[in-house]
Amino acid sequence: MKAMQLAAPGGLDNLKITDLPAAAAPAAGQIQVRIHASSLNYHDLGVVRRPGAAADGRIPMADGAGVVTAVGGGVTEFAVGDAVVSTFFPQWLAGRKVPTDFQLVPGDGMDGFARESVTLPATSFTRAPKGWTHAEASTLTTAGLTAWRALVVDGGIQAGDTVLVLGTGGVSILALQMAKSMGAKVIATTSSTAKAERLRALGADVVINYSETPEWGDAVLAATGGRGADIVVEVGGPGTLPQSIRACAPGGHIALIGVLTGIAGAVPTLELMRKQQILKGLIVGSREQQQDMVRALEVFGWKPVIDSSYPLERMAEAFAHQAAGKHFGKICLEY
Predict the structure, then answer these.
(1) Which long-range contacts (CB under 8 A, 24 or more apart) does 48-53 make?
(2) pTM of the entire structure?
(3) What per-residue confidence (pLDDT) applies to 193?
(4) Which one, of 235, 63, 250, 225, lies nearest residue 139 by Cα?
(5) Apex CA 304: angle with CA 33 and CA 109, to 5°?
(6) pLDDT, tens digit, for every residue of 233-286?
C-alpha cells in the first residue's frame, strides 16, 4: 500500500512517499479500514516540522476517514462498507480521566493515517456522518471535536448565546457553523477583508479586523452592548488570551485550545477573577463525545468548509500552504 513516512530528524523535506505491506487481517475486536482522506491540523504540522518530534519512519496524520473493509471477531458496531472516521485519543473512550500526553495519538506517538489501509481496534473509530464525503468526515477527528467540546461539552452553549471565534482556521470555522446551528450569535475576527466577507457569508453576525483594531476585546464589548461573549473559542494562546479575557462576558467560558502565538505568556488574572470567568484548557475529546457530535451533525444543514485538497504524495505542499496561514477552513489529503 502507498504511505507517507517522515524520516529523522523531521521537516517537510523529509516526508517520503513509500510502499508498505498491506494492512493485516483484523484480529478479534479489530477492523480493517481503507483510508481515503485526512485533514491537516497544526498539531500535525508541529510533529512533522519540529526536529526530533517523531520517531524515524513515523507515518503522520491524526485524522483518518474511510470505509471498513474487514471486521474481526466479536465486532458488532461496524460492518464491511461502513464509512468511519478515526478518534484522536483512541484510549479515551469516555469519562473524566483525560489523557495528558500524545503517546497513543496517531501520527505522533504512533503511526497515523497517511496510508491507504490500517487495522486497528474498532474503538479507534466512530461512524462518519451520513451523506458526508471522506474528506468532510476527516475534518472531525481533531478540529470538529475540538469545536464541539469547546461549545457543547465544556461551554454549555444555549440558543441566544454569543460566541467569539478567532481567525479562519478549521476549529474556528467549524465552531462558527456549529454555533449558528444551535441558535447562537457569532462574532469572528480576521485580518483579511476577503475573509471577512466569507465569514459573513457563513453567518457571522459581526466581523472584527484585528489588524485595524488591535484592542479587539473592546470591539467585542461594543458589539454586545458592553456584555461580551458568553463563549470564546481561544485558538491563539498567550498572544490573544488577554484580549479574549477582555472580550468575554462576566461568568463566561474561555476554551483555551491553541498555541499559535506561543506556549507561555502573561495572563491578566485580575480581570479574569473579577469577571468570574471560566478559563479551561482542552485537547480534542473522547470517543463518546465524538459519537454525540456525529449524531448532531447529521441533523444540521451544512458541511465543513474545505479550503483545498491534495493527493497524499503532495503532503509537503499541503503543509506549506497551511504554514502560510492563507487558508480558510480545512486543508485535506485525499487518496
Answers:
(1) 48/6, 48/10, 48/11, 48/12, 48/15, 48/319, 49/10, 49/11, 49/12, 49/319, 49/323, 50/10, 51/9, 51/10, 51/11, 52/8, 52/9, 52/10, 53/10, 53/108
(2) 0.96
(3) 96
(4) 63
(5) 45
(6) 999 999 999 999 999 999 999 999 988 888 899 999 999 999 999 999 999 999
